[in-house]
Specification:
Layout lengths: L2 H11 L22 E7 L2 E7 L8 H19 L5 E5 L8 H7 L1 H4 L7 E4 L2 E8 L2 E6 L4 E3 L15 E6 L6 H9 L5 E5 L7 E7 L5 E10 L14 E2 L13 H13 L12
Parallel strand pairs: 2-3, 3-8, 8-9, 9-12
Antiparallel strand pairs: 1-2, 4-5, 4-11, 5-6, 6-7, 10-11
């Protein structure tokens, strides 16, 4: 990016110049900004739907607010005693992966190797423990990010999880999806992800310009790399605009799988909508 464009970008950030629209991945869900949660009912089962949105925190407080809100959504929905969950990552174009990882940590489960970066200088693993996400280098050095506020929530057992993805699932949103790859009792629904599953660094040049250089590739907990993203277990073309849950073919396929996989495993109580 040339120096002049960097200056324009800084002006837009301070509100002195209007932001010029840029091309974005195709997804009707990109406009979602805050984590959401709701319950669906199918075949007598209460199935929580957790929406993990993009996250661009500007400071530690916003970082903690996002992950804490996401964990509280999970905790509230867990009161329905579900055997299965839906994690919706559609339209999550990225931002900072660490608050997303910590926020959805109760469903991912604690672990020291939930995924990794294959970097130019070695590997670094993604860890989630005690309400905090961290990155651990080959030499054992840990970069620990701000934890959730209060006591972290924990889910008993290893529930079934359906993960929804589409062409708008990119960058850090893709990394969170990759963290679910290899997790037991997990199945992916929707469309191929964006293919921006890489780690990048900004190199400042002598004339004031900057170069974004790819220095690493995302990999799942088995070590499989995803330089071009990945496709779902069940490929289903999503609607071009946001539709109600009953008309959302991707969501309905996920609910049907969960209902079948968890039949007889849950004892839902009365739910108020």
């Amino acid at each position: 990016m040339e120096k002049r464009e960097l200056q324009r970008k800084a002006q837009r950030a301070t509100g002195r110049e209007a932001e010029t629209p840029t091309s974005t991945p195709s997804s009707p869900f990109i406009g979602r900004h805050e984590p959401e949660g709701r319950l669906a009912r199918l075949g007598g089962n209460a199935i929580p739907i957790v929406v993990v949105t993009k996250c661009f925190p500007e400071n530690d407080r916003q970082f903690t607010d996002y992950e804490t809100k996401l964990q509280r959504i999970v905790a509230d929905l867990d009161g329905s005693r579900p055997a299965g969950w839906v994690v919706d990552l559609r339209g999550n174009v990225g931002g900072n992966m660490w608050p997303m990882l910590a926020g959805i940590g109760p469903l991912l489960g604690e672990g020291d190797h939930l995924g990794e970066f294959f970097n130019t200088d070695g590997h670094s693993a993604w860890r989630y423990r005690d309400g905090a996400a961290s990155e651990v280098a080959d030499d054992g050095k840990e970069s620990r990010y701000p934890p959730v506020a209060g006591a972290p929530y924990k889910i008993a057992g290893k529930p079934h999880v359906a993960v929804l993805i589409d062409g708008g699932t990119g960058s850090s949103g893709e990394a969170v999806a990759i963290a679910f790859r290899g997790r037991p009792k997990t199945r992916f629904f929707g469309e191929h992800t964006q293919g921006a599953s890489t780690a990048n660094d900004v190199i400042e040049l002598s004339d004031g310009a900057a170069m974004w250089l790819t220095i690493g590739v995302d990999a799942d907990r088995t070590g499989k790399q995803y330089i071009d993203g990945f496709g779902p277990d069940e490929a289903i073309r999503g609607a071009e605009t946001a539709v109600p849950d009953g008309q959302d073919a991707v969501l309905q396929a996920a609910l049907q799988w969960l209902n079948s996989a968890t039949r007889g495993l849950t004892k839902p109580r009365a739910i108020s909508y």
